[in-house]
TrEMBL record:
InterPro entries (alphabetical): O-antigen_ligase-rel_domated (IPR007016), WaaL-like (IPR051533)
Protein source organism: Serpentinimonas raichei
Residue ranges constituting the O-antigen ligase-related domain according to the UniProt record: 174-325
PANTHER family listed in its UniProt record: TEICHURONIC ACID BIOSYNTHESIS PROTEIN TUAE
Signal peptide: none
MF GO annotations: ligase activity
Keyword vocabulary terms for this entry: Ligase, Membrane, Transmembrane, Transmembrane helix
Subcellular location: Membrane
Transmembrane regions listed in the UniProt entry: 6-32, 44-63, 75-92, 99-123, 143-161, 168-184, 190-206, 213-230, 317-336, 343-362
GO cellular component assignments: membrane
Protein name as annotated: Lipid A core-O-antigen ligase and related enzymes
Bilayer topology annotation: Multi-pass membrane protein
Length: 393
C-alpha cells in the first residue's frame, strides 16, 4: 500500500493516463486492505461533510436549473475531485511520507530530463513530452508541481533539529527545482507559485518578524534576479501587460490574457444575474458561444473561463462558491495549525495556496491534467494530526 502511494507521488510528473492507472491501483488497494479500514475511516469521517456538501449543492442546482450541454462533464469532475480528496485523506502516516518521497523522486527525474534536454535533444517520447514541449495544461502542471516541490524542499530543509547532512540535500533540491522552473518554464502560473510559496514557507516556519523580514528581503532579491535573468518570465508578463493595454483601449481580443479577462467578465456577469443557484451546471459553453458568435467566433468553443472560482459562482451560485472556499479554508487552517508538529502538514498548506492561485487563472478542479495530483497530494499531506518527524524552535 505504502509503495503504491510512493509510485503515485512519482507519477505526478508522468502522463495523465499513468497517473489515473496509479490512482485506480491505490483505490483498489484501499478498498481491499480491510485491516486498516477503521483508522482510515476515523481519519476521513470528519471531512466528509465538507467534501460532500459541494456535490449535494450541485445536485440541487441540477434539479432546479435543468440539464445543460456540459452538465455530465461537470458532474463527473465534481465526483472525481471528491474521490481524490477522500483517497488522500484516508492515507496513514507511512503512506503519506512515502507519497512525499515519491513526489520528490519524480521532481528530480523531471528536472534531470529537462536539463539533459538542454544539452542533448531527447527523443520525442510520450513519457516526457509534456516536460519538453508545450502541450497545454499538461506542461503547465509539470512546472507548477516542480515549483511546489521546490517550496516543499525548502520547507523541509528549514526544519529545526536537522544536522547539515540532512538539511543540505533538501536545500539543494529546492535550488535545483526553482532554477529549472525559473529558467525553462513558460507557464505564468508556475512562476506565480514559484515566487509566492517561499513567502508562505517563511511565514509558517518562523514566528519572529525580524527573521521573516530578512527572509523576505532575500526572496525579493532572488525574485529580482530571476526576473532579470530568466529567458521566459519577463517577456511573458510584459507581453500580457501590453495585450491588456491594447484590449482596454480597443476592446479587441488579441491573445490568451485578453481572452481570459473577457471570460472573467462573462462569468462575473452570470454570477451577478443568478447569485443563488447560478446559470446551471454545465451552462458555460452555450452562454459563451452566444457571447462570441458576433464578437469573435474563433474563441467560441472555449469550454471554461480558466477561473474555477468564477466558474463555480456562475454555474452554481454564490453558495457553491462559498462551500468550495470553506473546504479549502478548512484544509488550509488544519494544515497550518498542525504544521508545527507535522512537517507534511506544512507541505499540505503550500498545496492549499497552490490550488487557490491556480484556480484563479486556470481550472485545476475541472481539468485532471492540471489538478489530479495537486488535489490528492493536498489531501494526503493534510490528513495527519501529529508527527515526531519535525521539531520546532
Amino acid at each position: 500500500m505504502a509503495y503504491l502511494a510512493a509510485a503515485l507521488g512519482f507519477l505526478t510528473f508522468m502522463p495523465i493516463g499513468l497517473a489515473y492507472l496509479g490512482l485506480l491501483g491505490l483505490l483498489l488497494a484501499l478498498l481491499l486492505n480491510k485491516t486498516h479500514w477503521q483508522p482510515r475511516w476515523q481519519q476521513l469521517r470528519p471531512w466528509l461533510w465538507l467534501v460532500g456538501l459541494p456535490l449535494l449543492w450541485a445536485m440541487l442546482v441540477l434539479a432546479t436549473q435543468g440539464w445543460h450541454e456540459d452538465s455530465a462533464t461537470r458532474l463527473f469532475h465534481l465526483v472525481r475531485v471528491a474521490l481524490l480528496l477522500c483517497i488522500g485523506l484516508a492515507l496513514l502516516p507511512r503512506e503519506r511520507w512515502l507519497a512525499l518521497y515519491g513526489l520528490m523522486a519524480g521532481a528530480v527525474f523531471a528536472a534531470a530530463v529537462m536539463l539533459l534536454n538542454q544539452v542533448w535533444a531527447l527523443p520525442d517520447w510520450a513519457i516526457w513530452r509534456a516536460m519538453l514541449t508545450v502541450t497545454g495544461n499538461s506542461s503547465s502542471q509539470k512546472f507548477i508541481m516542480l515549483a511546489v516541490a521546490a517550496a516543499a524542499a525548502l520547507w523541509l530543509g528549514l526544519q529545526a533539529g536537522l544536522d547539515w547532512r540532512r538539511r543540505l540535500p533538501w536545500l539543494l533540491a529546492a535550488a535545483l527545482f526553482a532554477t529549472v522552473v525559473a529558467a525553462l518554464s513558460i507557464s505564468r502560473n508556475a512562476h506565480l507559485v514559484l515566487l509566492f510559496l517561499p513567502c508562505v514557507v517563511l511565514a509558517l516556519r518562523y514566528r519572529g518578524w525580524r527573521v521573516r523580514a530578512v527572509g523576505l528581503l532575500l526572496l525579493l532579491a532572488g525574485a529580482a534576479a530571476v526576473w532579470q535573468l530568466s529567458p521566459t518570465l519577463q517577456p511573458r508578463f510584459e507581453a500580457a501587460a501590453q495585450e491588456m493595454q491594447h484590449f482596454a483601449a480597443t476592446g479587441e481580443l488579441g491573445g490568451s490574457a485578453s481572452v481570459r479577462w473577457r471570460m472573467y467578465q462573462r462569468a462575473w456577469q452570470g454570477m451577478s444575474e443568478q447569485p443563488l443557484l447560478g446559470t446551471g451546471l454545465g451552462s458555460w459553453l452555450p452562454l459563451w458561444r452566444a457571447e462570441m458568435a458576433d464578437e469573435n467566433p474563433a474563441m467560441a468553443e472555449i469550454n471554461n473561463p480558466h477561473n474555477d472560482w468564477l466558474l463555480t459562482g456562475m454555474e452554481k451560485g454564490v453558495p457553491a462558491l462559498l462551500l468550495l472556499l470553506a473546504l479549502l479554508l478548512a484544509l488550509g487552517w488544519h494544515s497550518a495549525r498542525h504544521s508545527r508538529g507535522d512537517a507534511l502538514a506544512g507541505v499540505a498548506h503550500l498545496l492549499v495556496w497552490t490550488v487557490f492561485i491556480t484556480a484563479l487563472v486556470n481550472a485545476p478542479l475541472r481539468d485532471a491534467n492540471l489538478g489530479l495530483s495537486m488535489l490528492w497530494l493536498l489531501a494526503a499531506f493534510a490528513a495527519g494530526q501529529r508527527s515526531s518527524e519535525a521539531k520546532w524552535d
